[in-house]
Amino acid sequence: MKNKKIMQVGISLSLVGMLGVNGTLPVLAAEVKDGDSAIISEVQKDTSEDVQESEVKNEETQPTEEGQQQVTEETDSNVEEQVEDKTAVEEEQTAEQSAEQQESPAEIEMEKQESEKSQDEFEINSDGELVNYTGSATRVVVPSNVKRIGASAFSANNNIKEVVLPDGVTSIGNFAFYQCSNLEEVVLPDSMTKLGEYTFYGCTSLRKVNLSEGITEIPNEAFGKCYQLRDFTIPNSVKIIGAMAFSSCSELNVTIPDGVEAIGRYAFSSCGKLKEIITPASLKVIEEGAFYGTGVETVVLPENVTEISPRAFGFCKNLEKINIPEGITELSDEVFLNCAKLKDVTIPNSVKTISQYAFYGTGVETVILPDSVTEVRKSAFASCPNLKRIEFPREIKSIGDYAVNNTGNLNTVVFKGDAPSIGKDVFSSPNNCPIIEVPKGAKGYDQKPWTNYKIVYTEGVRIPEAVTNFKSIPAGKQKVKLTWNSAEGAEGYLIYAQKNGKYGYVGMTTKGTTFTDTKALDTDYNYYWVFPYVTDTNTGKMLPGKCTKYVWAKGVIPAVQNLKASSVKGGVKLTWTEQKDAEGYLVYGQRAGGKYGYVGMTTKGTTFTDTKASKTAYNYYWVFPYHKDGQGNMIVGGTPKYTYGRAL
């Protein structure tokens, strides 16, 4: 005990000169390895306490130089012994901890059993198909040896919130995740090529799911009643969207990509948040009720569409604008049923039949049927409260029961030819029917049931008013497309233009309200006028109406569509839709911190990767199509919307 005390005093005295301001041991710290930091702090603590004790004792007695030297030597020796002792203790403690960390055979066996139990939750057959999952985990990572997800494998499992499928899975069977009501996210591999019917039907919490480019069809009711599914990307590889594929996805916002050829029955029905539909040029068929009851406001249909089936846009109560493509021959049953905000529709000259209830309950105000229409069926324009005027063409043959019934504001009905056969109460009761104008000399209006109506024979010719909503857009190499709303009573339209300072006739149309000038200037602006006209039945002369507005455009390639940017390793990849007549594309951009300018060009395909893109900030891009004139000069097309992205 006494020796220990002397040793402590010696340590205190010998270290006085060595201690820094904070009482540290710089010499010792340098000599001891990094792993011995715990020993140093312990020694520092002991020495710090002993310094205070030695200062008190030093006031009572001062040691001789020899005594001090002796004690110092003993102290140095003892410090080394303490360090060695501490090191030995620590090594012993480390060994004990290591031993504690080593699992016992029982623990290893328990873990093995747990692992086997987890694997037992996946029933996988010899073909690599996951037949059934019996687990209760909220996050499920499917084993890597699975190649297919079988029918109903996860059906009605309400514990799952997230599922991750491994690379190599190629298909998911029917009803695989049917009514997994708490499922929020599904991670699918790029190897996926096929989804089954009802795959995610009734997954009412599903918010996020990715589909790979290998999938060509979204089958029937695949995502029906996924109420929380919002922004969804349909792969460019998809050609068919099946019946009720997204039915009742009330939050859905989606873009239909190029390549889709058919949209199935009620595919997007009751998608209340779906506001705009721009369909691709590849689309040909819109099946029954495809957009029934959606919140859509604007619909743009391509010219390739040949069939719009019954109820396709029925009960789209917010629909205000839609174009009907040339080539449609019949407006099907209830196609625009109860589209209350639909006020202006241009019916193309290809349409022959207006089917029953086609425009029932719409907001149309004026209807001028083209010369091609020969039949209007039951209640086609009934219950249209804003309808004021309707004109039937010269060749109309048949009008069905109640066709224009219950239209309280209707004040003008015009027939341009002989009397067609008509059904019951076509124009409400005779006493409430407006005056019907027919041309002088027309036959059949002196017989029943026409004699029950107020018939007025007209001699004069009504000159149509100027067209409205007249627009021009670039449509390709030396092409400009003109569009306008129909002029009341017009039989056709005359197109005039001014090019290189010369004004003259360009063409005419009796089929719809569009015209494409295929000889437009591509190096300067072309100016256009459109005149509606009627024919004087007495003289056969063409009588043009007014034109109060002109439009202009160059005959260049229109702006690219669907311009997108994606982050890739070492750059930003741009993709866009191919533009007809384009001979190549120029890429301009503004990289992070830089100025707007030329980035590159391509004449091969519709992709470009900027390998100099910033990884830390967004880069902005524009892609311009071009063609070359006869002298080889590059003629740049329309300006697109920009896109942006960052490199990985």
List the helices and strands and how they pair.
Blueprint: H1 2-15, H2 26-31, H3 37-60, H4 65-101, H5 105-120, E1 122-124, E2 129-133, E3 139-141, E4 148-149, E5 162-164, E6 171-172, E7 185-187, E8 194-195, E9 208-209, E10 217-218, E11 231-233, E12 240-241, E13 253-255, E14 262-263, E15 276-278, E16 285-286, E17 298-300, E18 307-308, E19 321-322, E20 330-331, E21 353-354, E22 366-368, E23 375-376, E24 389-392, E25 398-399, E26 412-415, E27 421-422, E28 436-439, E29 455-458, E30 468-476, E31 479-485, E32 492-499, E33 502-509, E34 514-517, E35 526-535, E36 542-544, E37 551-553, E38 564-568, E39 571-575, E40 584-590, E41 597-602, E42 607-610, E43 619-628, E44 634-636, E45 643-645
Parallel strand pairs: 2-4, 3-5, 4-6, 5-7, 6-8, 7-9, 10-12, 11-13, 12-14, 14-16, 15-17, 16-18, 17-19, 20-21, 21-23, 22-24, 23-25, 24-26, 25-27, 26-28, 28-29
Antiparallel strand pairs: 1-2, 30-31, 31-34, 32-33, 32-35, 35-36, 35-37, 38-39, 39-42, 40-41, 40-43, 43-44, 43-45
Helix pairs in contact: 1-3, 1-4
